Amino acid sequence: MKLKPVLQIFGGLAIVLTLIPLIAIDYWWIRIFDFPHIQLTILTFTALITYFMRFEIKRVGDYLFAVGLLCCFLFQLTKIYPYTPFADFEVLDAKNNIPEKTISLYTANVYQKNKEKKKLVQDIKKHDADVLLFVETNNAWKEKIDATISSDYKYNVSVPLDNTYGMLLYSKLKLINPQVKYLVDKGIPSIHTQVLLASGDTIQLYTIHPTPPMPQHNPKSSDRDAEMMKIANLSRQSKYPVLVIGDFNDVAWSATTSLFHNVGELLDIRKGRGFYNTFSAKSFIMRWPLDHIFISDEFRAIDVSLGSDINSDHFPTYTQLSFEPEYADEQHPKKPTKDQLERAREQANHVQNVELDM
Question: What are the backbone angles phi and psi of residue 112, rounded to the nearest 5°?
Fold first, then answer.
């Protein structure tokens, strides 16, 4: 088989896969193509370079094909560039490192069927974070974690479930008025609580784990998008500095997470630091960031890293932040536009009984 037709098919596939996520519908077989954007960028770049190196471009069709590949590559690159070390930090490095004004967070999707629970316990103890969040946790996970770490974490909120959406929150810092909310589905919890820092400052914490757009979970992304938009609205209106953590089941560069980012007036700690791909821990190639931490502008970064292999399909995340509200203006996010607020309202209202007061 000749190389050129094969390469044209290869490049044509890259173009099609670039265009599919631009279709504004929420079916899973559309939204799933938001995820492998890093891989798609590499695929398109490989096709483009190979085409220029191996073939003379003489015909109009050759020019159109090359231009199409180049446009797709540039579009893809603009999506992922902010998450490379070449981009500017969105969350600046800490100026201070006062222990009483710091907070460290460890999050892990444990994989409910995971039998090797000791690996998680070892990684928890290694990082010794102030706040721990575990998702996909049932009663077996709760019993194991309670037996090994609960004495160090006086405050906790437990929602063990067998539907892979259980959630456990543990904290060394005092939790104020913790509440379990079911924003879009009675089987999908989120935890809303204030956290009291050692300095006496109060912050607002939201933990989420919405359903992914996959046929075995939810054929559409509507529920996920609605939950994220409602949290974004709560974040924007909060009188306290905000942290949002969890397994979003969405990538940082998708239209939904970008809208959440803008509407919530939050900052993405990944930008300028790296992808920190958390899923899939079982694949070296097909990995992307699904577990996130978004923060308001009062926080600055001390440490951002992935945890160890805990035999889950996700890697854990560890983040240490410094609370420095006196420097918030140096990294203040832009206000959401009327169009962004309207799109967020529309996404929230796709789900019955969800009201989003914008």
Answer: -55, -35
Residue type, 271: K
Look at residues 166, 250, 240 and name the one whose alpha carbon lies nearest to residue 206.
Answer: 240
Order the strands of the 299-306 sheet from edge to edge.
155-159, 167-171, 131-135, 102-109, 317-323, 299-306
Q: Could you report the per-residue pLDDT of 55-88, keeping only the tens digit for each?
A: 667 777 777 888 888 888 998 899 999 999 999 9
Q: Output the CA–CA distances (angstroms, integers) from residue 265 to 79, 231, 280, 311, in the order listed.
A: 19, 11, 29, 35
Neighbours of 97 (CB within 10 A): 12
- Tell me the pairing of strands 131-135 and 102-109: parallel
Integer angstrom CA distances of residue 159 from 8, 125, 127, 151, 316: 51, 22, 23, 18, 19
Q: To 10 degrees, what angle do helices 222-237 and 338-348 make?
A: 130
Residue pLDDT, tens place only, 280-337 = 999 988 999 999 999 999 999 999 999 999 999 999 999 999 999 999 999 999 999 9
Whole-number CA gyration radius for the chain: 21
Q: Which amino acid is at 269?
A: I
